[in-house]
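SAMPLE LOG
Freezer: B-3
Tube label: C17
Construct: single chain, 380 aa
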Amino acid sequence: MIRIGIVAGEASGDLLGAGLIAALKQRYPAAVFTGIAGPRMIAAGCEALFPSEKLAVMGLTEVLGHLRELFAIRKAVVRHFLAEPPDVFIGIDAPDFNLGLERQLKMAGIPTVHYVSPSVWAWRQYRLPKIARSVDLMLTLFPFEAVFYETHHIPVCYVGHPLADTLPLIPDRHAARAELHLPQDGEVVAIMPGSRMSEVRALGEIFIEAARLCAERRPGLRFVAPLATAATQELFAARLQTLAPRLPVTIVQGKAHRVLTAADAVMVASGTATLEALLLKCPLVMAYRLSPFTYWLAQRLVKVPHYSLPNLLAGRALVPELIQDAATPANVAAAVVHLLNDKPGRVQLAATFSEIHLNLRQDADQRAAEAVAGLLLRRS
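STRUCTURE (predicted):
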């Protein structure tokens, strides 16, 4: 019987963990999974020592407020796995929690896997020695991450991105517009200022003003804004009512994938949404604003030529990136209007997006399971 320790934090880690558990069970039907799990992982058959929501704290002040509890949880998990050693341990994302846990288990002779690379390729590269001491195998979602680890002689396997497996290669725009009650003809621009309140505060007004400028230049243009939560939806709606009450904007909660499928272009905050736009073949303009001090610090620490995932994956400036002072309503509007005017450019962009999508579509759950099985075989 194979015993597998597994720890995931937040909903994204729970989703990855559930897929990996299902794929591993195909290879090891009698395998036993124990660790920190969310509802999907528990449903897939993982015994939860603690719920994954315990690790889902964000922001410096939030983490500091939970630091004692987080240390206590990690200590308890280490104690459990040292008393009942698994054949392999898999830490999914949550690097600040998992890398320390993995290091202690690896020192005890337990093989360790880390699934989802920290952004060490972008900044804080001093963490590389800690990663090397902590993990026997790194599983990455993106190919450029695997190249980075290979150059630093850390065992790595590129498994692809689960979103690329689940999202269609050819999105159904007609069905998406019908579901959102949008006309099948005419142009639609999506507005996605981010999933967090701080992002909506920073970009909401900029995107609303940019949309107003776009509408002035292209009468008949419609907008759709999918907001992640009721709170962000309320904040965005209030700003819209103040700044441009007559702007034809449909606000929905959730449904980001349907909106990106329906849209001709999107103005979007930096983050996973840029990858979702790429996979759904929606031309995008990425913008982002940080506090002045955070941006000053980031300029000195971040070591990448691009910020958005489409540009990082393409290895070139494929889509516009408007950062900090460049993220103005006029610049965002100009970039969106340029996309709408350039139909041949949008067709070429969609073709490039499709190439990247195919490269990321690797059947990530199965490839990750295969890599874990390979480590188990080598260690046995």
